[in-house]
Amino acid sequence: MEKIEHTTISTNGINLHVASIGSGPAILFLHGFPDLWYSWRRQLLSLADLGYRAIAPDLRGYGDSDSPPSHESYTVLHVVGDLVGLLDSLGVDRVFLVGHDWGAIVAWWMCMIRPDRVKALVNTSVVFNPRNPSVKPVDAFKALFGEDYYICRFQEPGEIEEDFAQVDTKKLINRFFTSRNPRPPCIPKSLGFRGLPDPPALPAWLTEEDVSFYAEKFSQKGFTGGLNYYRAMNLSWELTAPWAGLQIKVPVKFIVGDLDITYNIPGTKEYIHEGGLKKHVPFLQEVVVMEGVGHFLQQEKPDEVTDHIYSFFSKF
Fold first, then answer.
1. Between the chain's N and C termini, which has fewer beta carbons within 10 Å?
2. Beta bridge mates, 8
3. Would you name the residues annotated as active-site residues?
4. How far apart are CA 71 and CA 225, in angstroms?
């Protein structure tokens, strides 16, 4: 870990903290919620050893990167803009891209908006869903799962932060990372995250040191920056109307765990395996479903995920 270099890059009006290691073709890793560059720590080291320049920023709102105060500054256009500026600052023209969770959503949109900057994509957890011109995304989730669905609960500024503040940060991180329940996460206001049972003992893939790293960063920064991505979902929907109907036209490999909540959303398995995803991502070359694996697959099965990334990118 001490071999990983840490720098601050000015881009798109903010400063991003960037972890990187190695030399060779560049791979850009994008994390999700509630996560940091640190989620890719094992991939950074392994892929640097395999001859790549591995780069993982804390996205805006996270860790040691800047956190603009307004949720309106967290649309996918803002974040893609950050990444284009980051690549320009690093002198990287085209990059291999890897995303997870919110990072996967951003990666899909980067491939949509700036395919000229992406050689190939390995995306994980969250499939590409084309923009529905008639329903805003938060409204769609509310209709599907009700107001207690976590994305709906995250919408009101300050409300969920107050709930989180009543839970020890280490326990909260543990709950997020170790959940094995593939059902849609619905948290009634009367219960809140504070009312959930204590998480089980840490699994072998997540150490006390790992949890402490996350807890320290989120205790310093708070969760508002990460939550603002959810609060900007409907605004992102409005602003991305000009790209409605476009396909993702870069080579893609998609990986998901069979216990991931995203894979178990009604209709998702059929969409992935019966041609729906391929219709919108015509250069989709591989789909991998990892058995017995949850949402944070790059941490749960780091060597397997690294092998999947390397086997795909080494073709290009």
1. C
2. 17
3. 101, 230, 295
4. 8
Q: What angle do CA 279, 283, 289 make, to 5 degrees?
A: 80
Contact status, residue 94 vs residue 118, Cβ threshold 8 Å: yes
Distances (CA, A) of 96 to 6, 136, 171: 20, 31, 34
Give CA–CA dist 227/151, Å, rounded: 9
pTM of this structure: 0.98
List Cβ neighbours of 287 (8 Å cut-off, separation of 6 or more): 253, 254, 255, 272, 273, 277
Dihedral, 70, 104, 213, 44 alpha carbons, nearest 10: -130
Q: Which of 175, 212, 210, 216 is nearest to 192 (CA)?
A: 175
Question: Which residue range forms the structural domain that includes residue 102?
Answer: 5-314
Q: How many domains does the chain have?
A: 1
Give the CATH number for residue 33: 3.40.50.1820
Q: How confident is the model at residue 179 (pLDDT cuts 50, 70, 90)?
A: confident
The two three-digit tokens of residue 121, written as one number: 């994509």
CB 149 within 8 A of CB 184: yes
